[in-house]
Protein backbone atom coordinates (compact mmCIF):
# COMPACT_ATOMS: atom_id res chain seq x y z
CA UNK A 1 0.00 0.00 0.00
CA UNK A 2 1.41 3.35 -1.05
CA UNK A 3 2.11 5.82 1.71
CA UNK A 4 3.61 9.29 2.12
CA UNK A 5 4.41 10.46 5.64
CA UNK A 6 5.43 14.07 6.26
CA UNK A 7 7.32 15.22 9.34
CA UNK A 8 9.34 18.17 10.60
CA UNK A 9 6.64 20.79 11.00
CA UNK A 10 6.26 22.94 14.07
CA UNK A 11 6.17 26.44 15.51
CA UNK A 12 8.94 28.80 14.47
CA UNK A 13 9.53 32.53 14.81
CA UNK A 14 9.58 34.80 11.77
CA UNK A 15 12.98 34.58 10.11
CA UNK A 16 13.51 31.05 11.36
CA UNK A 17 14.07 27.80 9.50
CA UNK A 18 12.54 24.35 9.31
CA UNK A 19 13.24 21.21 7.34
CA UNK A 20 10.32 19.05 6.28
CA UNK A 21 10.70 15.42 5.29
CA UNK A 22 8.37 13.13 3.39
CA UNK A 23 9.04 9.41 3.56
CA UNK A 24 7.58 7.31 0.77
CA UNK A 25 6.76 3.62 0.68
CA UNK A 26 4.74 1.16 -1.38
CA UNK A 27 5.71 2.45 -4.82
CA UNK A 28 8.84 3.05 -6.91
CA UNK A 29 9.86 6.40 -5.50
CA UNK A 30 12.65 7.09 -7.98
CA UNK A 31 10.13 7.00 -10.85
CA UNK A 32 8.05 9.78 -9.39
CA UNK A 33 8.07 13.54 -9.83
CA UNK A 34 7.54 14.79 -6.26
CA UNK A 35 5.93 18.02 -5.14
CA UNK A 36 5.22 19.98 -1.98
CA UNK A 37 1.95 21.83 -1.57
CA UNK A 38 0.55 23.87 1.29
CA UNK A 39 -2.86 24.92 2.48
CA UNK A 40 -3.44 27.88 4.77
CA UNK A 41 -6.62 28.19 6.84
CA UNK A 42 -9.54 29.14 4.64
CA UNK A 43 -7.45 28.90 1.48
CA UNK A 44 -7.04 26.41 -1.33
CA UNK A 45 -4.08 24.10 -1.67
CA UNK A 46 -1.19 25.81 -3.47
CA UNK A 47 1.92 24.49 -5.16
CA UNK A 48 5.18 25.19 -3.34
CA UNK A 49 7.96 23.23 -5.06
CA UNK A 50 8.59 20.27 -7.34
CA UNK A 51 11.55 18.03 -8.15
CA UNK A 52 12.25 15.62 -10.99
CA UNK A 53 12.81 11.94 -10.39
CA UNK A 54 16.61 12.24 -10.48
CA UNK A 55 16.68 15.49 -8.52
CA UNK A 56 18.22 17.37 -11.42
CA UNK A 57 15.28 19.67 -12.10
CA UNK A 58 13.38 21.76 -9.60
CA UNK A 59 10.80 24.50 -9.70
CA UNK A 60 9.28 26.78 -7.11
CA UNK A 61 6.36 29.06 -6.50
CA UNK A 62 7.39 32.70 -6.79
CA UNK A 63 6.45 33.24 -3.16
CA UNK A 64 9.15 30.85 -1.90
CA UNK A 65 11.94 31.27 -4.47
CA UNK A 66 15.27 31.98 -2.82
CA UNK A 67 13.98 30.88 0.60
CA UNK A 68 12.92 27.24 0.12
CA UNK A 69 14.92 24.35 -1.35
CA UNK A 70 13.47 21.01 -2.40
CA UNK A 71 15.70 17.94 -2.57
CA UNK A 72 15.39 14.18 -2.57
CA UNK A 73 17.30 11.09 -1.55
CA UNK A 74 16.18 8.20 -3.74
CA UNK A 75 18.16 5.70 -1.64
CA UNK A 76 16.10 6.77 1.38
CA UNK A 77 12.82 7.21 -0.54
CA UNK A 78 12.54 10.67 0.96
CA UNK A 79 11.88 14.16 -0.32
CA UNK A 80 12.79 17.23 1.71
CA UNK A 81 11.79 20.87 1.89
CA UNK A 82 14.34 23.17 3.48
CA UNK A 83 12.66 26.43 4.50
CA UNK A 84 14.52 29.58 5.53
CA UNK A 85 13.56 33.19 6.28
CA UNK A 86 10.11 32.01 7.21
CA UNK A 87 7.26 34.52 7.25
CA UNK A 88 3.88 34.45 8.97
CA UNK A 89 2.28 33.98 5.56
CA UNK A 90 4.11 30.65 5.24
CA UNK A 91 1.85 29.29 7.97
CA UNK A 92 -0.01 26.31 6.51
CA UNK A 93 -0.33 22.57 6.47
CA UNK A 94 2.35 21.25 4.14
CA UNK A 95 1.67 18.17 2.03
CA UNK A 96 3.88 16.09 -0.20
CA UNK A 97 2.56 14.63 -3.41
CA UNK A 98 3.63 11.92 -5.84
CA UNK A 99 2.56 13.53 -9.10
CA UNK A 100 1.99 10.63 -11.51
CA UNK A 101 0.08 8.40 -9.11
CA UNK A 102 -1.48 11.36 -7.31
CA UNK A 103 -0.63 10.09 -3.84
CA UNK A 104 -0.84 12.54 -0.94
CA UNK A 105 0.47 12.52 2.59
CA UNK A 106 -1.51 13.53 5.66
CA UNK A 107 0.31 16.85 6.00
CA UNK A 108 2.44 18.53 8.64
CA UNK A 109 1.60 21.85 10.27
CA UNK A 110 3.99 24.77 9.98
CA UNK A 111 3.21 27.83 12.09
CA UNK A 112 5.31 30.98 11.81
CA UNK A 113 4.56 33.32 14.69
CA UNK A 114 6.30 35.46 17.25
Compact summary:
The protein is mainly beta and 114 residues long. The chain has no helices and eleven strands.
Structural account:
The chain is mostly beta strands. The protein contains no helices and 11 strands. Strands 2, 4, 5, 6, 9, 10 and 11 form a 7-stranded mixed beta sheet that branches. A hairpin with a 4-residue loop joins strand 9 and strand 10. The mean pLDDT is 97.
Spatial gap, N to C terminus: 40 Å
Listing every helix as H and every strand as E from the N terminus to the C terminus, the arrangement reads EEEEEEEEEEE
Largest sheet: 7 strands, mixed
What portion of residues belong to β-strands?
over 45%
Can you give the mean pLDDT? 97
Q: Which blocks of ≥5 consecutive residues have pLDDT under 50?
A: none
Categorize the overall geometry: globular
Contiguous helical run count: 0
- Overall strand count: 11
What characteristics describe this protein?
114 residues, mainly beta, 4-stranded antiparallel β-sheet
Question: Secondary-structure blueprint of this entry?
Answer:
Elements: E1 3-7, E2 10-12, E3 18-25, E4 34-39, E5 45-51, E6 58-60, E7 68-73, E8 78-83, E9 92-98, E10 103-104, E11 108-112
Parallel strand pairs: 2-11
Antiparallel strand pairs: 1-3, 3-8, 4-5, 4-9, 5-6, 7-8, 9-10, 9-11
Amino acid sequence: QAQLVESGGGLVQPGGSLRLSCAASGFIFEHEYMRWYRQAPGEGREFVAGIGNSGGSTNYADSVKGRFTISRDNAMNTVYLEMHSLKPEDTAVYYCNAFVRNYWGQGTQVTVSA
